[in-house]
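Hey L., structure's done. Input below.
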Amino acid sequence: MPHMVKCVKFQKEMPGLEETPFDSPLGQKIYDNVSQEAWNLWKEHLKMIINEYRLNLADTQSQEMVAQQMEEYFFGVGAALPPGYVPPKKKD
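Output:
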């Protein structure tokens, strides 16, 4: 049976992540409150952030920026998706 969470993005009960994404208080908070579907949306958003800011994830400052962006994405003001949000269809 999948780990279920009340997703902060979709505002409903959904399957969560199989394990914490990283070993930190933020990783645990994500595990407890973020669905797998919302995590997949974050990963797409993260690609944009990395490209936009030309981040090197081996760099501590870049890692801190990503953590800050992730906190804001999931738990900041306006983090929940608008009611009735439908994710865009994937291109083949």
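Residues 54 and 79 are 24 Å apart (CA to CA). The chain has three helices and two strands.

-- N.
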